[in-house]
Structure formats: structure tokens, C-alpha cells
Amino acid sequence: MRSAADLFAEQGFRRASVRSIAANAGCDPALVGHYFPSKEALFTAVVAETVRPAEVLREAVGRRDPDAAEWLLRNAVADWGDQVQRTRILGVLRSALDLSAAESRLRQSLVPEGVADDEDGEMRLALISSLFVGVVMARHLELLPAELAKEGGSDELVRALMPVVAGYLEAGR
Hints:
- This protein is mostly helical.
- The protein is built from 11 helices and no strands.
- The protein starts with a helix and ends with a helix.
């Protein structure tokens, strides 16, 4: 999985082959095929491991306390300060732009079905996920002020985003 995540991030979905992933992991390609019936299945597993907002969105929606937005943000941005994880997240986003199957899998992870109680809730959660994707890209493109983009700067980022996320979460209550 680590080898696949690294190669998908570095090369994108199309260029990363099962053979190169296996070679990078130091195993036989047949072993990869034993656990993952296709490269798409392997990519799906990598997306599930790398982009996990469905878990935190589900719990945030279930929380009815005023700290739900802060809790959601702290859990969502926890990995963003780690260079390896950030590279993998960007690789997943890059692959989603390159391949419709990857796009579909990422969309399912970012905007999970059945988390919200109604259409309005699903729209609000989609907007939160869109905000997260936008912030990841803005950090990558160095569009954010230095205090929001620095390594370990998640406290400032959480404080900056909290009013927006709180508004989306509280709108349906």
C-alpha cells in the first residue's frame, strides 16, 4: 500500500504500473494481484487510506456540540502537515483529474452518501469537502499566507477555517 501510494503520488494513476509498484515494494507482481484484483482496486484502497473525510464527516454530523467544527477540522487537517501524506493526497487529486474511475472513487470518499439526513445536509458536507480540497491545493500552490501554510501550522489553519465549517455544520441544526 505504501509503495502504491508513493508511486501514484509520484507518477499518477496512468503511469504507475502494478509491476513498478511491486518492484518498489520488493515483491512479486502476483502478490499484489492476490490482494488486489486490479490496479483500480489497489487505487481504491490507497484513496480509502489516504483521503479519509468520510469517517470524520460522519462523526462530526452526529455531534451536536458547539465544538463539532473544531473537532472536524483538527481531525481533517491532522495529516496535512506531514510531507509524505500531503504528497500522497496531492497524488490522489492529480490521479482523479487524469482518470474517471479515480475521480469517482475520490468523489465517493470526499462526499460520502448517507452521512447527512437530507439533501441540504449532503450539500453542506459537499461544500466542506470542497473547502478541504481547495485548502490542500492552495497550500500546495503557496497561495495561503505563511502562517496558514507553515509546517505544524494546523492551529492557525483550524482557527481560520472554523467559522466557515461551523456555519455549514450548524445550518442544518
